[in-house]
Specification:
alpha/beta, Urease, subunit C, domain 1, Diaminopimelate Epimerase, Chain A, domain 1, 8-stranded mixed β-sheet, 6-stranded mixed β-sheet, 25 strands
Length: about 550
């Protein structure tokens, strides 16, 4: 059989062999029909075959981001990004400038990625700084971890939040010494405003998804796991996704994970209705806890800088405990957010209980993030067949290592054991890697660099933070392709360069196996092929 396209390179990485080889990949329609040493490429080349020779550039399977908030990631590319602000006032002015330049002068103003930890005074913001610029328009600004929101008085008014509004389960409405709502919302309290701010028409959602896909093409991302639950409900309309699928507008394969605590009968119907090569609904997701920097991750030992504080549950954990076996019985893989070692243990306990009740089946359950883990819980990933789904870029929460909050909140010894990537890879036998966009950018080269070096952007600490947990380039790339595909039970279709698999292929401008690790973040994708079609070529 002659190929439509034959890709040649001196560095073909198939996500199987530990090193790239001098080879080719032959593509016919939307499938790979041949992979091997370059001497065998000729049999696939005919008069109508396009031959692309990429020399020393790395050819590999498309990246599969195992943890993306898809709609919010599109918003991240569309709305004002406040990551560079160094004060509350500067952030407020950036929002004002963006609002003035936007054509829409009505409705909600939305922004992302402010973080008081990066500000000079490290003090949480209030509604007053926003009110001076926006007395009449509601403002909703999600922080860098997406576990808090900064809002103005108009937003509080529209959401019906008064000084007497009780805190929701798993969250808090920040108040001043007089009991007045300050404009900062912790954890699940963000949903009190988010359910009004984050409402979009199908046409608006399509714009956001297209915005995400434009960035994904440039990064070589061809598959995503869309973790949909936010504090006010699912983010992402599956009918919109399906419309885009039918009309040929999807350029990523979407594996949607709606709310574990939602209507499972409804999700079962979605699983049957929305099932194609590019759209699947076979997973469920929920939060067990928050994040350690705000003392909301559930930990086995109290926070070093907050004696007596062991974190909070963001949901009714008894409800999650009961929902996991039911999801398992129905064949839904569950993804549980866990940043603390206590929540990781809880999630493993819930999965073990489900397996004990209904036996092992096709489910590929996962713990998302796995920032901390008790030594005795590590072997359970392999024993129970649980997928560790990790985002290495979270290691460098701050640009400068000396500003890293983890040693402060957890203490130096416990902080030195965070993100046990290598141990998880070795013990579980598989690792799924993603970005957690929009918490961080979905640039895969950030994730690769961080996993390989464990350095902050100032090059510290020397030899990396907890260097025994570094991954090799092979381990990272295999995890970012095969590992993530395995996590959604599609390793027979995706994740490696093998005959019969979908032709989702990327070309990187250098061989990541041979360059100095310091060059990894400077890398670019030169070509992205999705479903056998070239959808991006770098100028």
């Amino acid at each position: 059989m002659k190929a439509d396209i034959v890709i040649k390179s001196n560095a073909v990485f198939d996500s199987i062999a530990e090193k790239p080889f001098c080879g080719f990949v032959a593509v016919k329609e939307n499938r790979i029909i041949g992979v091997g040493e370059q001497t065998g490429a000729g049999e696939y080349i005919g008069d109508g075959t396009t031959v692309l020779d990429y020399g020393e550039r790395l050819v590999m399977a498309g990246f599969h981001d195992s943890h993306t908030h898809l709609l919010m990631a599109g918003m991240f590319r569309t709305y004002v990004n406040l990551i560079d602000a160094r004060s509350e006032e500067e952030a407020a002015r950036m929002v004002k400038k963006a609002a003035d330049e936007a054509p829409d002068q009505d409705g909600w103003i939305i922004g992302f990625s402010w973080y008081h930890v990066f500000w000079d005074n490290r003090t949480l913001p209030t509604k007053k700084s926003l009110d001076q610029y926006f007395p009449d328009r509601p403002v909703f600004l999600v922080n860098a971890e997406a576990h808090g929101a900064w809002v103005n008085s108009k937003a509080l008014e529209l959401a019906g939040i008064t000084d007497d509004t009780p805190n929701p389960f798993g969250g808090e409405i920040a108040r001043d010494e007089k009991g007045e709502a300050t404009g900062f919302l912790y954890e699940s309290a963000t949903g009190l405003v988010g359910k009004y701010a984050l409402v979009f028409t199908p046409e608006q959602e399509k714009v956001l998804i297209h915005s995400y896909q434009e960035g994904a093409k440039e990064y070589g991302i061809t598959s995503v796991n869309d973790v949909q639950p936010y504090f006010h409900g699912n983010m992402g309309n599956l009918e919109v996704y399906s419309d885009m699928d039918r009309s040929g507008e999807l350029t990523v394969r979407i594996h949607a994970a709606p709310d574990l605590l939602g209507d499972l009968d409804q999700v079962s119907q979605w699983r049957e209705k929305y099932r194609s090569d590019k759209l699947r609904v076979e997973m469920l997701k929920q939060f067990l806890d928050g994040v350690s920097t705000t003392h909301t991750a559930l930990v086995l030992e109290e926070y070093t800088d907050a004696p007596g504080n062991f974190g909070i549950s963001l949901n009714d954990t008894e409800a999650i405990k009961n929902a996991v076996p039911e999801a398992h019985r129905r064949g839904f893989s569950v993804k549980l957010h866990s940043c603390g070692d206590k929540s990781a243990r809880m999630g493993l306990d819930y999965y073990e209980n489900a397996i004990r009740m209904y036996g092992r089946n096709q489910c590929r359950h996962a713990i998302e993030h796995v920032e901390m883990l008790a030594d005795e819980d590590l072997p359970r990933f392999g024993e129970l067949g649980i997928i560790p789904s990790v985002q290495p870029e979270h290691i460098a929460l701050t640009q400068v290592f000396d500003e890293n909050p983890y040693p402060i909140t957890l203490g130096a010894e416990r902080a030195g054991k965070t993100w046990p990537l290598k141990s998880l890879y070795d013990t579980a036998g598989v690792l799924a890697i993603g970005s957690d966009c929009p918490v961080v950018d979905n640039n895969p080269f950030l994730e690769i660099y961080r996993a390989v070096t464990r350095l902050h952007n100032d090059g510290k600490p020397e030899d990396g933070w907890n260097p025994s947990q570094k991954l090799t380039v092979y381990e990272v790339l295999r995890s970012y392709t095969y590992g993530s595909a395995y996590g959604v039970s599609r390793e027979d279709e995706l994740g490696t360069l093998e005959p019969g698999k979908f032709a989702d292929i990327v070309v990187i401008d250098r061989n990541l196996f041979t360059v100095n690790p310091s060059e990894i973040m400077e890398s670019h994708v030169d070509m992205t092929m999705f479903d056998g079609k070239i959808i991006y070529q770098r100028d």
